[in-house]
Specification:
heterodimer; A: mainly alpha; 3-stranded antiparallel beta sheet; 3 strands; about 5% strand; B: mainly alpha; ATP_synth_b/b'su_bac/chlpt (chain B)
């Protein structure tokens, strides 16, 4: 690993594999100067930061898409062989997941929308699979990546705010879409303007409060998932810094604890998504 | 922890996954699950119906059995009565027959007695004549005394 001190080790493990655009005249870590704006892999964390918005976390995107394909591939595989009779082991597992998600939607969502349940299923299983990657010991995959010449490699997409915000923004757009669709522009505006204090004098205050509450939704969704996963990751990294013989006394309990945290965070994200969308469907 | 294009990439991936799930994953599996639920519900209601039918059938069978028992008892009763009647009639017949036989026998006996008496009567005259001859040591003119003898025989 390209890390000599604990601080470098930690920083290294918290940096994504970034492919982005370096601006013209940028001085790279090794002292060379970029002649013109180029797309390249960042060699240091500083470079990754300096790439600004025009950059992609290849590891985050790659692993999350891989997990999404694993999820959909597996479920589609079962869907092709689905039987009305006695289900086999794999179908049983899939159906349990379905019933779990259907249960959440039935309990929380009071409207009628065929999109909500599959949306919740996608969110739940996808986040679950992405979170599960965390149980792979933190140095395994990055070491392999390093051997292949990739300097940085983070395998858990949910420890990257880009991934969690990507999802929560998707949810946010759905909230806005259904709010406007169900309540209409005037209905939704009225709801923002006349809640919680139903008096014209309070309109500015209401608007401020309601819009804030609206915007807080995707932010809290994304940050809760990211925060939990990121913090867990940091603790794993810190444990990995300890002498080898003592590590198992800490990372085993921590991993066992994450068996709880991983589905819990997926569950919370799913339930809150359904709750927010349910509120978007409620016409007062 | 830089916010960059990954955000948009992730949103697009999310949208595509949701679309795929809505279109190709959710419907077939829920359809199969609902079909199975319906099958199970149908099976349960069929079982309920069957048990109800069984109950009804059992009730009917009990009724039929009861009816059959009653009929059988009535038949036996009737048969017993009939048998008693037959026995009674037979007895009556036998008695009448016996009486008839006895009557017949009596008549025969009477007849024979009359016959015997007549025979005796016939012989008595001869015997009396013979007896008188012996006593008188003479022959008795049968013709002369026949009138007297016949009177005698008639007295017997």
């Amino acid at each position: 690993m390209a890390a000599d001190t604990p601080v470098e080790y930690i920083k290294h493990h918290l940096t994504n594999l970034t492919y982005g655009k370096l601006p013209e005249g940028y001085e790279r870590a090794d002292g060379s100067v970029v002649q013109e704006a180029t797309w390249t892999f960042a060699r240091t964390g500083q470079e990754a930061t300096d790439m600004g918005f025009m950059a992609i976390h290849v590891d985050t995107l790659g692993w999350s898409i891989a997990m999404g394909i694993l999820f959909l591939g597996l479920f589609r595989f079962v869907a092709n062989r689905v039987t009305e009779g006695t289900p086999s082991g794999l179908q049983n597992l899939i159906e349990m997941t379905f019933e779990f998600v259907q249960g959440i939607v039935r309990d929380v969502f009071h409207g009628k929308n065929p999109l909500i349940a599959p949306l919740a299923l996608t969110i739940f299983v996808w986040i679950l699979l992405m979170n599960i990657l965390k149980l792979i010991p933190i140095d395994y995959i990055p070491s392999i990546a390093h051997a292949l010449g990739l300097e940085y490699f983070k395998i858990v997409p949910t420890t990257d705010p880009n991934a969690t915000f990507g999802m929560s923004i998707g949810v946010f757009l759905l909230i806005l879409f259904y709010s406007f669709k169900v309540k209409g522009v005037s209905g939704f505006s009225k709801e923002l303007a006349f809640n919680p204090f139903n008096h014209w004098i309070m309109i500015p205050f209401n608007l401020l409060l309601e819009i804030l509450a609206l915007i807080i939704k995707p932010i809290s969704l994304a940050l809760r998932l990211f925060g939990n996963m990121y913090a867990g990751e940091v603790v794993f990294i810190l444990i990995a810094l300890l002498p080898l013989w003592i590590q198992w006394t800490l990372n085993v309990p921590w991993a066992i604890f994450h068996i709880l945290v991983i589905p819990l965070q997926a569950f919370i994200f799913t339930v809150l998504t359904v709750v927010y969308l349910s509120a978007a469907h409620e016409d007062h | 922890m830089n916010i960059n294009l990954t955000l948009i990439g992730q949103s697009i991936a999310f949208a595509i996954f949701v679309w795929f799930c809505v279109k190709y994953v959710w419907p077939p599996i829920t359809a199969a699950m609902e079909a199975r639920q319906k099958k199970i519900a149908d099976g349960l209601s069929a079982a309920d119906r069957a048990s109800l039918d069984l109950e009804l059938a059992q009730e009917k069978a009990t009724k039929e059995l009861q009816k059959a028992k009653e009929e059988a008892a009535a038949l036996i009763d009737q048969a017993n009565k009939r048998a008693a009647q037959i026995v009674e009639a037979s007895k009556e017949d036998a008695r009448k027959e016996g009486e008839k036989l006895i009557e017949q026998a009596r008549a025969e006996i009477q007849q024979e007695r009359v016959q015997a008496r007549d025979a005796l009567r016939a012989e008595v005259a001869t015997l009396a004549v013979a007896g008188a001859e012996k006593i008188l040591e003479t022959s008795v003119d049968a013709k002369a005394h026949s009138e007297m003898l016949e009177k005698l025989a008639a007295e017997l």
